[in-house]
Amino acid sequence: MFKTISLEKKLLLVAGTLSLLFIGLSTSYFLYVRNNVIEQRRCALEPRITFIGSIITGYYQQYLDRELSLVQAQQQAIDEIHQINQVDENYTFVFNDDYLLLESVNNAKMLNKNVKEDRDIKGVKLYQLLYNEAVYRKNDGYSHYFYRLNTDGTEQQKISYSQYFSPWGWIYGEGVYINDVDESILNILTSN
C-alpha cells in the first residue's frame, strides 16, 4: 500500500509525522520546565515566610521586653510586612484567629474585615483553608486554590505557603500565581 502512494504524499506524511513529534516533544518539554519552575517557586515560599515569621517574632520580643505595647508591636509588624509587600511586590497576607484580615496587597479593600466566608470560584473557603494548613500542617502548610489577580480581578490558580504565630493568633503566608509561572516560561521560550 505504501508503494502506491505518490512521493508528494509520502513527503507530506513524513512532514506531518515529524510536526506531530515536534509538537509532542515541545509540549512535554514545556510541561517539564513548567513543573520544575512551579516546584522552585513553591519551595521559595517557605524561606520568605520564615523571614516574615522572624519579623513578627522580633516585634513580639520587643513587646515581651516592654519596649513596645502589644498594639504598637503588632502595628509595627504589620507596617513592616506591608512595606515589604510594596517594595518587593509580594503577595504576603496576614489574618488572625478571628479571620480579621490584617495585611494583603491583593485584597486591600477587605483589610480589617472578616474574611472567614470568602470563597474562590470552586467554592473553597480560602482563609479557612489557609488557617487549617498553617495550624494543622496537613500539607506542610501548602494550599492550592484560586484567587483574584490585582490587575483585572480574574481568578487564577495559586499555591500558598502559610505559618501560624500562636502568641498573637496570626496566620501569615505568601503565594505564587500559576499564570505568572506560565508567562515567565513563555517569555523565556519566545525570547530565544
TrEMBL record:
<keyword id="KW-1003">Cell membrane</keyword>
<dbReference type="InterPro" id="IPR033480">
    <property type="entry name" value="sCache_2"/>
</dbReference>
<keyword id="KW-0472">Membrane</keyword>
<keyword id="KW-1133">Transmembrane helix</keyword>
<feature type="transmembrane region" description="Helical">
    <location>
        <begin position="12"/>
        <end position="32"/>
    </location>
</feature>
<dbReference type="Pfam" id="PF17200">
    <property type="entry name" value="sCache_2"/>
</dbReference>
<protein>
    <submittedName>
        <fullName>Chemotaxis protein</fullName>
    </submittedName>
</protein>
<dbReference type="GO" id="GO:0005886">
    <property type="term" value="C:plasma membrane"/>
</dbReference>
<keyword id="KW-0812">Transmembrane</keyword>
<feature type="domain" description="Single Cache">
    <location>
        <begin position="34"/>
        <end position="128"/>
    </location>
</feature>
